[in-house]
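Below is a filled-in request sheet from our internal design queue. Each sheet records the structural input a requester submitted and the sequence that came back. We keep these sheets so that new team members can see what a complete request looks like end to end.

REQUESTER: design group, bay 2
PRIORITY: normal
MODE: inverse folding
CHAIN LENGTH: 326
BACKBONE (tokenized):
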């Protein structure tokens, strides 16, 4: 994108690119200052992240990804073992950096700054493995619930520290975790409500009660629990994976558009990587027509843009938003 936009290298490159594209929302990253052996940020390097989850580099034709190599709680058999784990410290982050990071985001214009607190579903299964986590939700629910409790409370407390450091310049607090697949939810909605919703709900409610806007991320089809998320105080649902079952803009707006705003919605599975710039432009405007009928739509790709997406298509998506008569 830098080359396509004709920008020079800089120590503020990400913000420079986003400023050139006039992207309104910015995600606040928090510098890690904890122990080196737990210093690998999730999905950004080989080693262990702050939760103790192992990562390994995987090369594809276009990108480098980092996948899990091991799960530190894979062998736990009791709540006592969960409690005895070497949980991360809240002091492993540099909260003092927050004001300067936000200032750099706002250098050209005032932006809507979002801090992603974390979530109570995805990180817990990272720690013990997906099969163990999903199985024990039914066979030994006290174990995954203990993991969820530790994870959710850590994320909640860390976000509270970030909000305090931001001194009123943070608008949105995000939470989430993928609970959907292309065809439906990863767990039965009833199981999610009983075992996961209490932790997810507290992450949303804490910040909603503070007057923050709330944001929840889940890929896939999650229609059965969107009402639950709204009940918990959700403002903004992300990423709107339009190709997943039930997640079409038409269905979502007709069912939830009077109570919920949407972030994402521009297909990153087929349209952005394989469509033409004209197709992207036209589909973006069509999606705005549907999801933005009451203004409650933030135009964005339906997840992180991958390396096989032509830069022209990124520009076309954002240009359609600029040209639209809101």
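RETURNED SEQUENCE:
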């Amino acid at each position: 994108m830098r080359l396509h936009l004709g920008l020079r290298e800089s120590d503020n490159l990400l913000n420079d690119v986003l400023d050139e594209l006039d992207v309104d929302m910015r995600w606040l990253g928090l510098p890690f200052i904890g122990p080196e052996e737990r210093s690998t940020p999730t999905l950004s390097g080989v080693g262990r992240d702050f939760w103790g989850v192992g990562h390994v580099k995987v090369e594809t034709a276009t990108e480098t990804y980092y996948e899990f190599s091991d799960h530190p709680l894979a062998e736990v058999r009791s709540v006592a073992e969960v409690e005895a784990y070497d949980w991360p410290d809240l002091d492993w982050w540099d909260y003092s950096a927050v004001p300067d990071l936000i200032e750099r985001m706002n250098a050209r214009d005032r932006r809507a700054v979002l801090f992603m607190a974390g979530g109570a579903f995805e990180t817990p299964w990272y720690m013990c493995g997906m099969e163990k986590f999903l199985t024990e939700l039914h066979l030994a629910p006290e174990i995954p619930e203990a993991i969820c409790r530790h994870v959710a409370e850590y994320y909640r407390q860390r976000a509270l520290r970030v909000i305090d450091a931001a001194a009123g310049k943070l608008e949105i607090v995000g939470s989430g975790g993928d609970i959907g697949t292309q065809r439906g939810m990863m767990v039965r909605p009833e199981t999610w409500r009983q075992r996961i919703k209490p932790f997810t709900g507290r992450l949303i409610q804490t910040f909603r009660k503070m007057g923050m806007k709330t944001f929840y991320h889940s890929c896939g089809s999650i229609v059965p629990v969107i009402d639950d998320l709204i009940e918990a105080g959700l403002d903004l649902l992300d990423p709107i994976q339009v190709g997943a079952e039930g997640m079409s803009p038409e269905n979502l707006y007709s069912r939830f558009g009077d109570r919920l705003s949407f972030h994402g919605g521009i297909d990153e599975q087929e349209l952005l990587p394989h469509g033409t710039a004209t197709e992207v432009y036209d589909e973006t405007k069509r999606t705005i027509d549907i999801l933005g009928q009451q203004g409650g739509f933030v135009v964005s790709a339906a997840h992180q843009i991958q390396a096989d997406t032509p830069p022209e298509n990124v520009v076309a998506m954002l240009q359609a938003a600029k040209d639209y008569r809101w």
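SHEET NOTES:
- The domain at 2-34+76-238 is CATH 3.20.20.210 (TIM Barrel).
- The longest helix spans residues 142-166.
FILED BY: M.R.
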